[in-house]
Amino acid sequence: MNDTLGEAALIDNALAAIGMVLARMEGAPPPLPADAPRPATAAMVVPMAPIAVQAPWVVMPSFTAEYRAIHCCLTSASALLGVTQTLIRQPASPTPMERLRQWDDVISQTKTAGRAAYQAALMLTDKQVD
Questions:
Q1: Distance between CA atoms of 47 and 49, rounded to whole angstroms?
Q2: How far apart, in whole angstroms, are the C-alpha atoms of residue 124 and residue 121?
Q3: Is-contact 105 21, C-beta < 8 A?
Q4: How far is residue 81's CA from residue 87's CA, in Å, rounded to a whole number?
């Protein structure tokens, strides 16, 4: 990449945007079908646990499979952007310890992305998700 600072800023913006969408999803009541009767506003409040504590399909059991899959896809995208961020921001001459820490981060984020994408696929194919 020619302009790593510019690219890093764009990735930061993308991560922030995904973070805002996830925060809205985690704090919003589940979407209702168009023909469903509308309950009172107070009854629509759904308590949510932080996503770091529970997986989205546990946190949002009353949400549609599509809605939960969207959450998983955004989680996956966020993790992959984290991988990109780590790779862009690596020092020119990292110490062996820095390199190890970076690769551990990349591996962890890649696993998170893959697992979240896989969970989304399972949800959309109507398979049981543990």
A1: 7
A2: 5
A3: no
A4: 10
Position 92 in a domain? yes
Question: Can you give the pTM of this predicted structure?
Answer: 0.68
Look up residue 83 and give its two tokens: 């991988």
- Look at residue 39 and tell me if it is in a domain: no
Over the stretch 15-38, which tens digit does the pLDDT of each residue have? 999 998 998 888 855 555 555 555
Alpha-carbon span 119 to 121, nearest angstrom: 5
For residue 36, tell me if it sits in a domain.
no
Output the six-digit token pair for 102.
Answer: 């970076």
d(CA 113, CA 130): 17
Q: How far apart are alpha carbons 14 and 30 in whole angstroms?
A: 24
Q: Number of folded domains in the chain?
A: 1
